[in-house]
Input
Amino acid sequence: MTSLTPKFPHLLHGGDYNPDQWLDRPDILEQDIALMKEAHINCVSLAIFAWAKLEPQEGVYQLDWLEEIIQNLYENGIYTVLATPSGAKPRWMSEKYPEIRRVNAAGQRELSGGRHNHCYTSPVYREKVRAINTVLAQRFAKHPGVILWHLSNEYGGECRCELCQAAFREWLKKKYGSLEALNKQWWTDFWSQTFNSWEEIHAPAPRNAWGNAEPVHGLSLDWKRFVTDQVADFIRAERDAVKAADPSVPVTANLMEDYYFYNYFKFKDVLDVVSWDAYPQWKGTEEDVDTAVSFALWHDVMRSLKKQPFLLMESVPSATNWAPVSRLKRPGMHLAASMQAVAHGSDSVQYFQLRKSRGASEKFHGAVIDHCGHSDTREFRDVEQVGRRLRQLDEAVCGSEVKPDVALVFDMENRWAVENAAGPRNCGIHYAEDVRAHYRALWRMGVPVDIVDEECEIKGYKLVIAPMLYLLRAGFAQKLAEFVKEGGTLIGTYHTGIVNENDLCHLGGWPGEGLGEVFGVWHEATDGLYDGEGNCILLDGKSYPVSELCALIHARGAQVLGTYGQDFYQGEPALTVNAYGTGKAYYLAARAGADFYRDFYRGLTEELGCKRALPADPPEGVEACLREKDGEKYVFLQNFSGEAQSVPLPEGCVDMASGQPISVAELAAYDGMAIQRSEG
Ligand code: GLA
Ligand code: ZN
Output
């Protein structure tokens, strides 16, 4: 792996910079550069929302101001991540061309204004974007200071205009070929929902007869898939426009945390570099450990999309202004949170934003340079500290990889389908939460994990964990069977192998598509439990609580390891293992709790010899991560526990900040430390 940004192959430290808001204040622009240098900032993301300045009137482009800024920054050692401006369309454009404005779920076309609200299908908008991107690329792609394209900003949302609906129908025609095939896969004979013409198909929306609870589940699922594909197509068009001028400059798009409306795995081949915006809401309480687990998982998702380092494109030095409460980070937390991103594979720490906007909706959002205009602030000092740390790590860590033995399946299409299905637990099916519960047990031990979806390759892992794999698609069942046959260890759970990719139930017994043989079980039915109810799994003389969903299964060749402790299915199998080929497949029949996952994964990762950051678990609330490059190992420790912690280290460790050998890492509350580990 070389650098994500070949023109400037270093860890990036910088962020969104909006000088277009300050063009009448050259004194401020000059001051900004001096302050950036003081904070060890080496890159800025420019012109993200500058369309109105770049094209003040239709077809009239004004780029001289931008060139001056790019050049000036470059001469000061600051590189540019240059944005395409499609995230916010100028008012003149949306007034003149109403079709570029989105139609919302209530069927109304929005008024002008705002951002992130353009139609992805509109040929007019696509043409306007292509034109400005081309002009920008022709002028700047070859500038030595321009290292990366930042396509638009946080692509998000949906449009239900007639252009989008028509594109959806075309997408369906391509997928199904005929209405007959579509009706069959969508099971439309149910409640007389048969479609007789393509024009009868509409996106699910509250004004439809059933509102968002569209009874034709295949339609809901396909609409979401279409939206993802349409956005991917829009991104591709943006990419092609800038690459036409110079294909060597990579492109990225800044993704979001837990973004439910798109399947980000479909973007992986469109982007050269994955980047994302992480805004954990740290509270300075015990809850911070949960927050750290969530963000660890999302950093891992972002790295896993392309299985290469990613960029932390936005984060906040102090506090956001959009959460219910703008809580300042406790001392140290900025370092711990920033290093968490790097520890999980980020080659940058970038911020929103460098200079705080004087007016409008983000005037109170944290920034590197506050309204006071000098460097004597907490947030500036915190940023400077991170900048210093990144410089120390740059040569060793930039481009290093995370190479786990464990893959955890977290599939967005499965998630949409699980959550849309009526039953077996409409008051909370908790797919994402269950994925996180499995993840947390591995995080606790410092075992690195890749996150995969059903289209990813799983060969080469020792352990694949696939919780609640309700919907099977893209030949994934065959991949899993192959994986186990060839010696892999697979964990499956209740609610697996229930439907095909269009949400039609598998006939002939669950789990379907051959997974019944792999797990050696037949899943007959699922008992949904009310909140507060529970059962337990009896295993190795211990009783582990389970809740919410309990599958009633029958061993069909599998060995029963654990049984239910209560209710009419007391004594029935609750945990099984099946030898299949040269591997093993475990089936966990009920939703377990943290203690089960902890014991289970401890035993399993030890038995399989799964790679971990340190030989022993770090203390509670401290995470231990591992990056590798050229045979070297870099261990990152972040302390989210809120108290000082000592972490014993194996032989041969060096503190990368001081260059000194170290045998115990002493971490203050919210401290972070990077260690080079030469042995073991
Ligand atoms: C998002 C956007 C930024 C800014 C921040 C504020 O991440 O991309 O433009 O609005 O939120 O947190
Ligand atoms: Zn539209």
User: Anything to note?
Assistant: The radius of gyration is 26 Å. The longest helix spans residues 217-243.
